[in-house]
Protein backbone atom coordinates (compact mmCIF):
# COMPACT_ATOMS: atom_id res chain seq x y z
CA UNK A 1 0.00 0.00 0.00
CA UNK A 2 2.53 2.55 -1.06
CA UNK A 3 0.40 4.59 -3.44
CA UNK A 4 -1.55 7.57 -2.09
CA UNK A 5 -5.17 6.73 -1.36
CA UNK A 6 -6.60 9.88 -2.91
CA UNK A 7 -5.71 8.79 -6.41
CA UNK A 8 -8.49 6.77 -8.02
CA UNK A 9 -7.28 4.98 -11.13
CA UNK A 10 -10.24 6.21 -13.14
CA UNK A 11 -10.08 7.11 -16.81
CA UNK A 12 -9.93 10.73 -18.01
CA UNK A 13 -13.06 10.26 -20.09
CA UNK A 14 -16.17 12.35 -19.30
CA UNK A 15 -18.28 10.70 -16.58
CA UNK A 16 -21.12 9.67 -18.93
CA UNK A 17 -18.76 8.05 -21.38
CA UNK A 18 -17.11 6.20 -18.52
CA UNK A 19 -20.48 5.13 -17.15
CA UNK A 20 -21.59 3.88 -20.58
CA UNK A 21 -18.35 1.94 -20.98
CA UNK A 22 -18.79 0.39 -17.53
CA UNK A 23 -22.40 -0.52 -18.31
CA UNK A 24 -21.42 -2.05 -21.63
CA UNK A 25 -18.69 -4.08 -20.01
CA UNK A 26 -20.87 -5.02 -17.06
CA UNK A 27 -23.69 -6.22 -19.25
CA UNK A 28 -21.43 -8.24 -21.50
CA UNK A 29 -21.19 -6.06 -24.64
CA UNK A 30 -17.91 -5.75 -26.49
CA UNK A 31 -15.47 -3.24 -25.05
CA UNK A 32 -12.22 -2.83 -26.98
CA UNK A 33 -8.85 -3.31 -25.31
CA UNK A 34 -10.16 -5.27 -22.37
CA UNK A 35 -7.65 -7.76 -21.12
CA UNK A 36 -8.82 -11.07 -19.78
CA UNK A 37 -6.41 -12.45 -17.23
CA UNK A 38 -6.12 -16.19 -17.11
CA UNK A 39 -6.03 -17.66 -13.62
CA UNK A 40 -3.17 -20.09 -13.82
CA UNK A 41 -0.51 -21.56 -11.60
CA UNK A 42 2.05 -19.18 -10.13
CA UNK A 43 5.03 -18.43 -12.36
CA UNK A 44 8.14 -16.66 -11.06
CA UNK A 45 7.83 -12.87 -11.55
CA UNK A 46 10.70 -10.39 -10.99
CA UNK A 47 9.96 -8.15 -7.95
CA UNK A 48 9.96 -4.95 -10.03
CA UNK A 49 7.02 -6.31 -12.04
CA UNK A 50 5.02 -7.47 -9.03
CA UNK A 51 1.82 -5.91 -7.74
CA UNK A 52 0.39 -6.48 -4.28
CA UNK A 53 -2.54 -4.93 -2.44
CA UNK A 54 -5.39 -5.31 0.01
CA UNK A 55 -8.93 -5.87 -1.21
CA UNK A 56 -11.79 -5.67 1.31
CA UNK A 57 -15.04 -7.51 0.67
CA UNK A 58 -17.95 -5.68 2.35
CA UNK A 59 -21.74 -5.84 2.26
CA UNK A 60 -24.78 -6.50 4.40
CA UNK A 61 -25.32 -10.05 5.71
CA UNK A 62 -26.04 -12.88 3.30
CA UNK A 63 -25.13 -11.20 0.00
CA UNK A 64 -22.44 -13.81 -0.72
CA UNK A 65 -19.20 -12.31 0.64
CA UNK A 66 -17.81 -15.55 2.01
CA UNK A 67 -18.78 -17.50 -1.10
CA UNK A 68 -16.89 -14.89 -3.12
CA UNK A 69 -13.81 -14.97 -0.88
CA UNK A 70 -13.60 -18.76 -1.11
CA UNK A 71 -13.95 -18.60 -4.90
CA UNK A 72 -11.30 -15.89 -5.18
CA UNK A 73 -8.84 -17.74 -2.98
CA UNK A 74 -9.69 -21.04 -4.64
CA UNK A 75 -10.16 -22.89 -1.37
CA UNK A 76 -12.67 -22.82 1.41
CA UNK A 77 -11.29 -20.48 4.06
CA UNK A 78 -14.49 -18.73 5.11
CA UNK A 79 -17.68 -20.49 6.07
CA UNK A 80 -20.97 -19.89 4.30
CA UNK A 81 -24.59 -20.65 5.03
CA UNK A 82 -28.06 -19.39 4.20
CA UNK A 83 -28.26 -17.98 7.71
CA UNK A 84 -27.37 -14.28 7.85
CA UNK A 85 -24.29 -13.25 9.81
CA UNK A 86 -22.32 -16.46 9.56
CA UNK A 87 -19.00 -14.64 9.23
CA UNK A 88 -17.75 -13.18 12.51
CA UNK A 89 -14.06 -12.54 12.01
CA UNK A 90 -11.85 -10.59 9.71
CA UNK A 91 -10.43 -13.27 7.48
CA UNK A 92 -7.50 -12.81 5.20
CA UNK A 93 -7.06 -14.96 2.14
CA UNK A 94 -4.31 -14.56 -0.45
CA UNK A 95 -4.19 -15.33 -4.13
CA UNK A 96 -1.41 -14.72 -6.58
CA UNK A 97 -2.43 -14.49 -10.22
CA UNK A 98 0.22 -13.68 -12.83
CA UNK A 99 2.24 -10.70 -11.50
CA UNK A 100 -0.38 -9.72 -8.91
CA UNK A 101 -0.95 -10.79 -5.34
CA UNK A 102 -4.37 -10.05 -3.86
CA UNK A 103 -4.75 -9.98 -0.08
CA UNK A 104 -8.47 -10.35 0.57
CA UNK A 105 -10.20 -9.23 3.71
CA UNK A 106 -13.66 -10.67 4.39
CA UNK A 107 -15.84 -8.82 6.87
CA UNK A 108 -18.91 -9.73 8.87
CA UNK A 109 -22.12 -8.39 7.30
CA UNK A 110 -22.70 -5.00 8.87
CA UNK A 111 -25.36 -5.33 11.54
CA UNK A 112 -27.73 -2.45 11.92
CA UNK A 113 -30.71 -4.06 13.58
CA UNK A 114 -29.55 -5.20 17.00
CA UNK A 115 -27.14 -3.44 19.30
CA UNK A 116 -25.55 -5.98 21.61
CA UNK A 117 -21.89 -6.54 22.50
CA UNK A 118 -21.42 -9.10 19.73
CA UNK A 119 -22.79 -6.74 17.07
CA UNK A 120 -20.76 -3.81 18.34
CA UNK A 121 -17.65 -5.96 18.04
CA UNK A 122 -18.64 -7.09 14.52
CA UNK A 123 -19.20 -3.53 13.34
CA UNK A 124 -15.81 -2.46 14.68
CA UNK A 125 -14.24 -5.29 12.70
CA UNK A 126 -15.89 -4.02 9.50
CA UNK A 127 -14.71 -0.45 10.02
CA UNK A 128 -11.16 -1.57 10.79
CA UNK A 129 -11.09 -3.75 7.70
CA UNK A 130 -11.92 -1.01 5.20
CA UNK A 131 -9.79 1.77 6.67
CA UNK A 132 -6.54 0.81 5.03
CA UNK A 133 -7.10 -1.12 1.81
CA UNK A 134 -6.38 -0.43 -1.85
CA UNK A 135 -9.75 -1.50 -3.20
CA UNK A 136 -13.19 -2.27 -1.77
CA UNK A 137 -15.56 -4.80 -3.30
CA UNK A 138 -19.01 -3.63 -2.18
CA UNK A 139 -21.24 -6.67 -2.58
CA UNK A 140 -24.99 -6.32 -3.09
CA UNK A 141 -27.58 -8.61 -4.66
CA UNK A 142 -27.96 -7.63 -8.33
CA UNK A 143 -31.01 -5.40 -8.81
CA UNK A 144 -31.51 -4.81 -5.08
CA UNK A 145 -30.51 -2.02 -2.73
CA UNK A 146 -32.13 -1.31 0.63
CA UNK A 147 -31.43 0.57 3.83
CA UNK A 148 -29.07 -2.11 5.14
CA UNK A 149 -26.97 -1.82 1.94
CA UNK A 150 -27.06 1.99 2.22
CA UNK A 151 -25.74 1.89 5.77
CA UNK A 152 -22.73 -0.16 4.69
CA UNK A 153 -22.10 2.10 1.69
CA UNK A 154 -22.16 5.13 4.00
CA UNK A 155 -19.25 3.71 5.95
CA UNK A 156 -16.92 3.43 2.98
CA UNK A 157 -14.18 6.04 2.80
CA UNK A 158 -14.55 8.32 -0.24
CA UNK A 159 -10.81 8.08 -0.94
CA UNK A 160 -10.68 4.37 -1.72
CA UNK A 161 -11.94 3.03 -5.07
CA UNK A 162 -15.07 0.92 -4.69
CA UNK A 163 -16.23 -1.77 -7.12
CA UNK A 164 -19.98 -2.34 -7.10
CA UNK A 165 -20.20 -6.10 -7.21
CA UNK A 166 -23.77 -7.04 -8.12
CA UNK A 167 -23.74 -10.66 -7.00
CA UNK A 168 -26.26 -13.47 -7.58
CA UNK A 169 -26.62 -12.29 -11.18
CA UNK A 170 -27.78 -15.83 -11.99
CA UNK A 171 -31.01 -15.03 -10.11
CA UNK A 172 -31.81 -12.00 -12.32
CA UNK A 173 -34.17 -13.05 -15.09
CA UNK A 174 -34.65 -9.76 -16.94
CA UNK A 175 -31.07 -8.70 -17.41
CA UNK A 176 -31.97 -5.68 -19.56
CA UNK A 177 -33.55 -4.07 -16.51
CA UNK A 178 -30.23 -4.01 -14.77
CA UNK A 179 -28.97 -0.99 -16.77
CA UNK A 180 -31.34 1.54 -15.09
CA UNK A 181 -30.54 -0.01 -11.72
CA UNK A 182 -26.80 0.35 -12.34
CA UNK A 183 -27.31 3.98 -13.39
CA UNK A 184 -29.22 4.68 -10.18
CA UNK A 185 -26.43 3.05 -8.20
CA UNK A 186 -23.87 5.38 -9.76
CA UNK A 187 -25.86 8.30 -8.32
CA UNK A 188 -25.36 6.88 -4.84
CA UNK A 189 -21.59 6.59 -5.07
CA UNK A 190 -18.92 7.18 -7.70
CA UNK A 191 -18.14 3.50 -8.18
CA UNK A 192 -14.90 2.72 -9.94
CA UNK A 193 -16.45 -0.29 -11.71
CA UNK A 194 -19.71 -2.24 -11.97
CA UNK A 195 -19.41 -6.00 -11.93
CA UNK A 196 -22.62 -8.01 -12.21
CA UNK A 197 -21.58 -11.60 -11.56
CA UNK A 198 -22.20 -14.78 -9.70
CA UNK A 199 -19.71 -15.78 -7.01
CA UNK A 200 -20.62 -19.36 -7.91
CA UNK A 201 -19.49 -18.96 -11.52
CA UNK A 202 -15.79 -19.65 -12.11
CA UNK A 203 -15.51 -17.53 -15.26
CA UNK A 204 -17.01 -14.52 -13.50
CA UNK A 205 -14.56 -14.92 -10.64
CA UNK A 206 -11.68 -15.15 -13.12
CA UNK A 207 -12.85 -11.97 -14.85
CA UNK A 208 -12.96 -10.16 -11.51
CA UNK A 209 -9.19 -10.62 -11.06
CA UNK A 210 -8.62 -8.81 -14.35
CA UNK A 211 -10.84 -5.93 -13.22
CA UNK A 212 -9.21 -5.58 -9.78
CA UNK A 213 -5.61 -5.85 -10.93
CA UNK A 214 -5.14 -2.21 -12.00
CA UNK A 215 -6.01 -1.04 -8.46
CA UNK A 216 -3.16 -2.94 -6.80
CA UNK A 217 -0.03 -0.87 -6.17
CA UNK A 218 3.19 -1.90 -7.87
CA UNK A 219 5.15 -3.42 -5.00
CA UNK A 220 6.67 -6.81 -4.16
CA UNK A 221 4.43 -9.61 -2.92
CA UNK A 222 3.97 -9.87 0.86
CA UNK A 223 3.27 -13.59 1.04
CA UNK A 224 4.56 -16.80 -0.41
CA UNK A 225 2.46 -17.25 -3.58
CA UNK A 226 1.52 -20.79 -2.50
CA UNK A 227 0.06 -19.56 0.81
CA UNK A 228 -3.73 -19.11 0.95
CA UNK A 229 -4.60 -17.83 4.41
CA UNK A 230 -3.23 -16.58 7.73
CA UNK A 231 -5.87 -18.42 9.70
CA UNK A 232 -4.77 -21.26 11.97
CA UNK A 233 -5.98 -24.85 11.67
CA UNK A 234 -7.61 -24.42 15.06
CA UNK A 235 -9.67 -21.54 13.73
CA UNK A 236 -10.59 -23.50 10.59
CA UNK A 237 -11.82 -26.34 12.79
CA UNK A 238 -14.10 -24.08 14.84
CA UNK A 239 -15.42 -22.37 11.71
CA UNK A 240 -16.14 -25.71 10.06
CA UNK A 241 -18.16 -26.91 13.05
CA UNK A 242 -20.01 -23.59 13.07
CA UNK A 243 -20.84 -23.90 9.39
CA UNK A 244 -22.29 -27.41 9.82
CA UNK A 245 -24.14 -26.27 12.95
CA UNK A 246 -25.87 -23.45 11.06
CA UNK A 247 -26.52 -25.50 7.94
CA UNK A 248 -28.05 -28.41 9.82
CA UNK A 249 -30.13 -26.49 12.32
CA UNK A 250 -31.66 -24.12 9.76
CA UNK A 251 -33.34 -20.98 10.99
CA UNK A 252 -34.39 -22.23 14.41
CA UNK A 253 -31.00 -21.68 16.04
CA UNK A 254 -30.08 -18.04 16.80
CA UNK A 255 -26.88 -16.80 15.17
CA UNK A 256 -25.42 -16.13 18.63
CA UNK A 257 -24.44 -19.81 19.01
CA UNK A 258 -20.68 -20.21 18.84
CA UNK A 259 -17.95 -22.85 18.87
CA UNK A 260 -14.88 -23.06 21.10
CA UNK A 261 -11.97 -25.43 20.49
CA UNK A 262 -11.00 -27.07 23.80
CA UNK A 263 -8.28 -29.34 22.48
CA UNK A 264 -6.26 -29.48 19.24
CA UNK A 265 -3.50 -32.09 19.15
CA UNK A 266 -1.45 -33.58 16.37
CA UNK A 267 -0.46 -37.26 16.63
CA UNK A 268 1.42 -38.29 13.50
CA UNK A 269 -1.08 -38.05 10.65
CA UNK A 270 -4.05 -37.65 13.04
CA UNK A 271 -5.51 -34.46 14.48
CA UNK A 272 -7.45 -34.87 17.73
CA UNK A 273 -9.92 -32.05 18.25
CA UNK A 274 -12.43 -31.44 21.05
CA UNK A 275 -14.90 -28.58 20.61
CA UNK A 276 -17.81 -27.09 22.54
CA UNK A 277 -20.86 -25.58 20.88
CA UNK A 278 -22.09 -22.76 23.14
CA UNK A 279 -25.80 -21.93 22.94
CA UNK A 280 -27.91 -19.43 24.84
CA UNK A 281 -30.86 -21.55 26.03
CA UNK A 282 -31.67 -25.10 27.09
CA UNK A 283 -34.14 -25.32 24.19
CA UNK A 284 -31.32 -24.55 21.76
CA UNK A 285 -29.22 -27.32 23.28
CA UNK A 286 -31.96 -29.81 22.39
CA UNK A 287 -32.04 -28.49 18.81
CA UNK A 288 -28.32 -29.00 18.39
CA UNK A 289 -28.28 -32.47 19.92
CA UNK A 290 -31.41 -33.64 18.08
CA UNK A 291 -33.33 -36.85 18.51
CA UNK A 292 -31.05 -39.45 20.18
CA UNK A 293 -28.05 -37.25 19.43
CA UNK A 294 -28.66 -37.60 15.69
CA UNK A 295 -28.12 -33.90 14.79
CA UNK A 296 -24.93 -33.48 16.81
CA UNK A 297 -23.55 -36.64 15.27
CA UNK A 298 -24.21 -35.35 11.77
CA UNK A 299 -22.64 -31.96 12.54
CA UNK A 300 -19.53 -33.80 13.79
CA UNK A 301 -19.37 -36.21 10.87
CA UNK A 302 -19.77 -33.56 8.17
CA UNK A 303 -17.24 -31.21 9.80
CA UNK A 304 -14.74 -34.05 10.26
CA UNK A 305 -15.07 -35.26 6.66
CA UNK A 306 -14.52 -31.80 5.23
CA UNK A 307 -11.54 -31.06 7.50
CA UNK A 308 -9.98 -34.41 6.50
CA UNK A 309 -10.34 -33.41 2.85
CA UNK A 310 -8.80 -29.94 3.34
CA UNK A 311 -5.89 -31.12 5.50
CA UNK A 312 -5.43 -34.50 3.86
CA UNK A 313 -5.12 -36.32 7.18
CA UNK A 314 -7.27 -38.25 9.66
CA UNK A 315 -9.34 -36.19 12.10
CA UNK A 316 -10.88 -37.30 15.37
CA UNK A 317 -13.52 -34.75 16.37
CA UNK A 318 -15.34 -34.76 19.68
CA UNK A 319 -18.25 -32.32 20.17
CA UNK A 320 -19.94 -31.03 23.32
CA UNK A 321 -22.86 -28.64 23.80
CA UNK A 322 -23.06 -26.12 26.66
CA UNK A 323 -25.59 -23.46 27.64
CA UNK A 324 -24.25 -20.00 28.55
CA UNK A 325 -27.18 -17.63 28.55
CA UNK A 326 -26.66 -14.02 27.53
CA UNK A 327 -23.08 -14.43 26.31
CA UNK A 328 -23.64 -12.24 23.23
CA UNK A 329 -24.79 -9.34 25.45
CA UNK A 330 -21.72 -9.44 27.67
CA UNK A 331 -18.61 -7.58 26.44
CA UNK A 332 -16.15 -9.57 28.56
CA UNK A 333 -17.57 -12.88 27.45
CA UNK A 334 -17.62 -11.84 23.78
CA UNK A 335 -13.89 -11.10 24.12
CA UNK A 336 -13.22 -14.35 25.96
CA UNK A 337 -14.78 -16.23 23.01
CA UNK A 338 -12.28 -14.70 20.63
CA UNK A 339 -14.06 -11.63 19.22
CA UNK A 340 -12.00 -8.46 19.43
N1 LIG B 1 -27.77 -18.03 -6.52
C1 LIG B 1 -26.67 -17.57 -5.92
N2 LIG B 1 -26.48 -17.76 -4.59
C2 LIG B 1 -25.34 -17.28 -4.02
C3 LIG B 1 -24.35 -16.61 -4.78
N3 LIG B 1 -23.36 -16.25 -3.93
C4 LIG B 1 -23.72 -16.68 -2.69
N4 LIG B 1 -24.91 -17.30 -2.74
C5 LIG B 1 -25.65 -17.90 -1.60
O1 LIG B 1 -26.04 -16.87 -0.71
C6 LIG B 1 -26.02 -17.35 0.64
C7 LIG B 1 -25.16 -16.45 1.52
O2 LIG B 1 -23.81 -16.55 1.13
P1 LIG B 1 -22.58 -16.20 2.11
O3 LIG B 1 -21.37 -16.29 1.25
O4 LIG B 1 -22.65 -16.98 3.35
O5 LIG B 1 -22.97 -14.68 2.44
P2 LIG B 1 -22.21 -13.62 3.36
O6 LIG B 1 -22.42 -12.30 2.71
O7 LIG B 1 -20.80 -14.05 3.59
O8 LIG B 1 -23.05 -13.70 4.68
P3 LIG B 1 -22.68 -13.21 6.19
O9 LIG B 1 -21.65 -14.17 6.69
O10 LIG B 1 -24.01 -13.35 6.86
O11 LIG B 1 -22.24 -11.80 6.13
C8 LIG B 1 -25.51 -18.80 0.58
O12 LIG B 1 -26.64 -19.66 0.57
C9 LIG B 1 -24.80 -18.84 -0.77
O13 LIG B 1 -24.78 -20.15 -1.33
C10 LIG B 1 -24.56 -16.44 -6.21
O14 LIG B 1 -23.78 -15.86 -6.95
N5 LIG B 1 -25.75 -16.95 -6.70
TrEMBL record:
One of its GO terms (biological process) is ribosomal small subunit assembly. Its main location: cytoplasm. GO terms for molecular function: GTP binding; GTPase activity; ribosomal small subunit binding; small ribosomal subunit rRNA binding. Pfam families: KH_2, MMR_HSR1. The keyword Protein biosynthesis does not apply. Residues 241-325 form the KH type-2 domain. It is found in: Cytoplasm; Cell membrane. Transmembrane segments: none annotated. Residues 106-109 are annotated as: G3. Residues 51-218 form the Era-type G domain. GTP binds at residues 59-66, 106-110, 167-170. Residues 59-66 are annotated as: G1. The keyword Cell membrane applies. One of its GO terms (cellular component) is cytosol. Residues 197-199 are annotated as: G5. Monomer. NCBIfam families: era, PRK00089.1, small_GTP. Belongs to the TRAFAC class TrmE-Era-EngA-EngB-Septin-like GTPase superfamily. Era GTPase family. This is GTPase Era.
Amino acid sequence: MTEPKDKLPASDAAPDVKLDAMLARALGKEVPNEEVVAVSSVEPVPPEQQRCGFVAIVGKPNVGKSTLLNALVGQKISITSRKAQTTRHRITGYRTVGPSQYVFVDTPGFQTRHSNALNRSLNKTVLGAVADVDLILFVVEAGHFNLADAKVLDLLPATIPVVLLANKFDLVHRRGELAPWLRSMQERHAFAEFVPMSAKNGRDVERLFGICEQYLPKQPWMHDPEELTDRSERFMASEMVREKLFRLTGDELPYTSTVIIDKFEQEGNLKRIAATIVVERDGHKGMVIGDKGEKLKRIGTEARQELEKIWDCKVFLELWVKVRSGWADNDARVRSFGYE
